[in-house]
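Saturday, quiet lab. Running sequence design on the structure tokens for the scaffold JK sent over.
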């Protein structure tokens, strides 16, 4: 793990805010089509949110067109203020105790084989909303036997009881993103702590050794190549199985600027390095996000095969 001195060595006054031209290989497909319209109507009817819409995910057109979506639970207002995220911030409404049932019924209606559940941060709740996460996993498993569940969770401020509640329901994939290298935590996600992420990922594997753990990194925020490799090695030392690496795209001028765009060749190098140090699956490309190809990951890895595409 990087030392405290290393993590805090950042001078915001030296950050270059000059706009960087987007390269031609980053092309986002606009969402459209019959399946997209059906999914959007279903979410509205069941009063559900998706992180696809709230975070303006660049893969929404591709994923929704194939009938998959990532549910955003615990409301759509976050209690933290990360510099990269486009989800609304402020004071959220009380937790919705009926949400687990609505999510489970939506998964059943969609006939999903793999459901991805994520959330805003809910620091206003004593357990950060972990009770709702646990009930959602349980209800999906009950209503749709054979549907695997991936939860992309906050750090819950490293609360042992919050994580225990979730892992007791045996999600097939426990995902928690470190987002960036340790040195940039204070600038990129000032209310998060690197040590909290370490606790979540290492403890999840200890609580459910047969389950898969997963994490993600954004590139283009000012990290060095050496820091990226160090972070990847660190995640492997925490027994993380799956790694996603994608290009940071600035949602608006009010968000953190893009330091630079990585090339396709660099993403390929990162993928190859990830496999060389022992990750069981690596997704590395400009538009990769946490739930990209999630269904393929759990299907291949649960069968005991390692994928190196």
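Result came back. Writing it out in full:
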């Amino acid at each position: 793990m990087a030392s405290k001195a290393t993590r805090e060595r950042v001078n915001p006054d030296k950050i270059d805010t000059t706009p960087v031209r987007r390269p031609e290989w980053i092309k986002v497909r606009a969402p459209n089509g019959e399946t997209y319209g059906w999914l959007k109507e279903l979410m509205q009817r069941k009063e559900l949110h998706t992180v696809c819409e709230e975070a303006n995910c660049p893969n929404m057109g591709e994923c929704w067109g194939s009938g998959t979506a990532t549910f955003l639970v615990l409301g759509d207002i976050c209690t933290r203020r990360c510099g990269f995220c486009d989800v609304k911030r402020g004071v959220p409404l009380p937790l919705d105790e009926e949400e687990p049932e609505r999510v489970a019924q939506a998964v059943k209606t969609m006939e999903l084989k793999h459901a991805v559940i994520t959330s805003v941060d809910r620091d206003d709740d004593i357990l950060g909303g972990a009770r709702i996460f646990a009930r959602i996993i349980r209800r999906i498993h009950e209503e749709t036997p054979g549907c695997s569940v991936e939860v992309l969770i906050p750090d819950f401020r490293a609360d042992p009881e919050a994580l225990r509640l979730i892992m007791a329901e045996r999600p097939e994939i426990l995902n928690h993103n470190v987002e960036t290298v340790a040195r940039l935590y204070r600038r990129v996600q000032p209310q998060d702590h690197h040590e909290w992420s370490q606790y979540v990922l290492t403890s999840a594997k200890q609580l459910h050794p047969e389950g898969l753990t997963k994490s993600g990194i954004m590139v283009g925020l000012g990290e060095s190549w050496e820091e990226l490799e160090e972070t990847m090695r660190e995640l492997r030392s925490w027994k993380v199985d799956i790694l996603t690496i994608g290009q940071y795209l600035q949602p608006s001028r009010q968000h953190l600027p893009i330091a630079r765009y990585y090339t396709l060749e660099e993403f390929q190098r990162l993928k190859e390095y990830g496999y060389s140090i022992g990750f069981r699956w690596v997704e590395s490309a400009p538009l990769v996000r946490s739930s990209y190809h999630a269904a393929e990951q759990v299907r291949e890895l649960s069968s005991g095969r390692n994928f190196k595409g």
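Notes for JK: Residues 29-302 form a domain with the TIM Barrel fold (CATH 3.20.20.70). Residues 1-17 have pLDDT under 50 and may be disordered. Ask whether to fix the surface positions before the next round.
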